[in-house]
Amino acid sequence: MSVSLTENAARQIKKQLEKRGKGVGLKLGVKKSGCSGYAYVLDYADTLNEDDTVFDKFDVKVIIAKNDIEFVDGIELDFRKEGLNEAFKFNNPNVKGTCGCGESFSV
To answer: Which residues on neighbouring strands pair with residue 11, listed in sequence order?
Structure first.
């Protein structure tokens, strides 16, 4: 199992955790959504649960719940600024298709 981060993503996560003033890392998961089946869910975690898997890179923790690991195994999380837009980007080798608007994916 693996989850990786780019340096840009790690910097953004650190920045947001500092701004919040608390948190152990970024929680990455999936939920059923959209026309293709699943959408990514990002949240900042203040605690770790027993069934969480933790990946540590660039001194940043990415936390994945046990039920979500099969959907994100091998993913690379990036953070990009393009013009006025900035957002996390997901490079997921498990994705078989996406919807036209890019909001959901299938595995």
So the answer is: none
Alpha helices, DSSP H only, in the chain?
Answer: 7-20, 69-72
Residue with tokens 């608390």: 22
What is the tens place of the pLDDT at every residue in 76-100? 999 999 888 899 998 888 776 665 5
> Cα–chain-centroid distance for residue 71?
11
Phi, psi of 48 (to 5 degrees): -105, 140
Domain total in the chain: 1
Residue pLDDT, tens place only, 26-81? 999 988 876 667 788 999 999 999 999 999 999 999 999 999 999 899 999 999 99
Q: How far apart are CA 84 and CA 61, in angstroms?
A: 27
Cβ burial of 93 (10 Å; 0-12, 13-18, 19+) is exposed
Tell me, what CATH number does 60's domain have? 2.60.300.12
